[in-house]
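To illustrate the input format used throughout this study, we show a single complete record. The first block contains the structure-token representation of the backbone; no residue identities are included at this stage. The design step must infer an amino acid for every position from geometry alone.
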């Protein structure tokens, strides 16, 4: 069976549109309903926090929004492309082009320099021309001009997270998904990271989604989407 073709929606300010998303995990005789008809939209350039207690569906939702997984039912449009029905190779392609990830644990290659870590998404995308220059510019944009040849163990936690942000930005994604981006940092470094993310959002109009348990982090955002039992409980 051929993989379904991408279906392009009409031009819109909605960079994320999730319609009646459900996700069911079947573990033997046990059925787990991780998402239950969830609906949400995020407009281009917004800074949005996603919050909720453990088991509310945050991780499942982020996996779907980040094109790491697909819903059991429902529709998901990312930057106008219908991605909810795509095959694994198509999801991987869109994930590389449209999504930048920032993780709590940084997820940097320990033996690679900051510059090499930032080059990785472009390597996966098959980009050859100007790759090193673009990686260098991304590191400069997060204040690491003098650290491009340092390895992760030669950088502080805040500096490692800056490398991760540069890596997320280097392919000019439609959205950045940040999963507890300040969770492993002290309060001062966490504040610096949030200010960098907000500055880059303002300069580039990149849509930013932040999963967090920290109300102080949520205060940096324009809107908070609260999940409970696999549904949107409320927005503020």
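Output of the design step:
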């Amino acid at each position: 069976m051929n993989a379904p073709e991408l279906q392009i929606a009409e031009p819109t300010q909605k960079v994320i549109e999730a319609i009646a998303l459900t996700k069911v995990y079947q573990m033997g005789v046990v059925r787990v309903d991780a998402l239950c008809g969830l609906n949400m939209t995020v407009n281009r350039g917004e800074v949005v926090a996603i919050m909720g207690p453990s088991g509310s569906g945050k991780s499942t939702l982020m996996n779907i929004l980040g094109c790491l997984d697909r819903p059991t039912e429902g529709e998901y449009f990312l930057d106008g492309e219908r991605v909810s029905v795509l095959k694994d190779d198509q999801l991987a392609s869109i994930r590389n082009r449209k999504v930048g990830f920032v993780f709590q644990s940084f997820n940097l290659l320990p033996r690679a320099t900051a510059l090499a870590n930032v080059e990785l998404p472009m390597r996966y995308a098959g980009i050859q021309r100007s790759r090193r220059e673009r990686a260098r510019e991304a590191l400069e944009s997060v204040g690491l001009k003098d650290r491009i040849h340092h390895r992760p163990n030669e950088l502080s936690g805040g500096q490692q997270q800056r490398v991760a942000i540069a890596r997320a930005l280097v392919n000019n994604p439609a959205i950045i998904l940040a999963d507890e981006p300040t969770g492993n940092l002290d309060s001062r470094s966490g504040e610096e990271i949030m200010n960098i993310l907000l500055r880059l959002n303002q300069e580039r109009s990149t849509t930013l989604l932040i999963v967090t348990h920290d109300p102080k982090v949520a205060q940096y955002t324009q809107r908070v989407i609260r999940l409970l039992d696999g549904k949107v409980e409320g927005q503020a």
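Structural context for interpreting the output: Residues 14-235 form a domain with the Rossmann fold fold (CATH 3.40.50.300). The chain has one domain: 14-235.
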